[in-house]
Write a structure and sequence with these properties.
DNA-binding, Homeodomain-like_sf, 10 helices, 2 domains, transcription regulation, single chain, mainly alpha, Arc Repressor Mutant, subunit A, elongated, disordered N terminus, transcription cis-regulatory region binding
Length: 245
DNA sequence: AAGACACGCAACCGCAAACAA
DNA sequence: ATTGTTTGCGGTTGCGTGTCT
């Protein structure tokens, strides 16, 4: 479901010319994720463009911000949007419109992008179909109110709500999965550090990340969101909390 | 088995607001 | 007050994957 990294440029392997200084676009490689994650985790964010520079990423600050906000932030929820959350989205969208960031702010762990995608790909379609059906019945042309929609939502979305116990969530940085999966702690991801448990996350095509976070604290930090690590564990990691300002 | 189509998601783009110099 | 920079937001696109025919 997730695209393989096309790694928009052909310069990544360090052919040090001016091309190498060009800004990268396209999907993020695990190595870039790692750099960004470590940079923000240990040093926080002054400005996003400085983050990009300090992490030696050939990305715009804007791109770094987006990647962090939508994917790398450890406080993101990894499970699918629940029925309850969907009801909230529908109800808020009807009352305030497409203000996705506002809607996201009411739903901890969800991003505006995620909600927007969810709306565009699923809910809107269903509402339109419902509205059309309503018109065909000679009913009002307005979209069905949230309360009515709930019934349909319930009927169509039950499968989404029961996310089984997934050891490593689908949406989780590959390098983090590698660490958790026994990669770094046992001497780094050398050899075949199979990202098998991350099947649908970004597979790096050949340029395997080194996962060279030489600090086992990182393992705890990266995984705290899913494994219910106590928050005070983070306090043991100097500078770790700077990122959350 | 193969091609067409639909779906879901990551990321880009353009714009506007906020802020700094 | 003006100009330049950064950040945040919403709309949109591109593309990998799953499903259907």
């Amino acid at each position: 479901m997730v695209r393989k990294p096309s790694h928009g440029d052909t310069t990544s392997a360090g052919n040090g010319g001016t091309e190498a200084m060009k800004e990268r676009k396209g999907l993020w490689s695990p190595e870039e994720d790692e750099r960004l994650f470590i940079q923000i985790t240990y040093h926080g964010v002054s400005t996003w463009s400085s983050v990009a520079q300090l992490a030696r990423l050939r990305r715009s600050g804007k791109s770094c911000r987006l990647r962090w906000m939508n994917y790398l932030r450890p406080d993101l929820k990894k499970e699918p949007i629940s029925k309850r959350e969907e009801e909230i989205i529908i109800s808020l969208q009807q009352s305030i419109g497409n203000r996705w960031s506002t809607i996201a702010a009411t739903m901890p762990g969800r991003t505006d992008n995620e909600i927007k995608n969810y709306w565009n790909s699923r809910i809107r379609k269903r509402l339109n179909a419902a509205a059309k059906a309503g018109r065909d019945d000679g009913a009002s042309t307005k979209p069905a109110p949230a309360s009515e929609e709930k019934l349909e939502v319930e009927a169509t979305n039950n499968a989404d709500t029961e996310a089984g116990p997934v050891p490593i969530p689908e949406r989780f940085p590959v390098f983090a999965c590698q660490l958790i999966d026994g990669g770094i702690a046992g001497g780094g991801g050398s050899g075949e550090n199979t990202p098998s448990t991350t099947s649908s996350t970004q597979q790096n095509s050949g340029e395997e990340s080194e996962a060279s976070v030489g600090d086992s604290n990182m393992i705890h930090f990266i995984s705290f969101d899913d494994l219910d690590y106590p928050a005070d564990l983070l306090m043991d990691l100097p500078g770790a909390m700077d990122a959350w300002e």
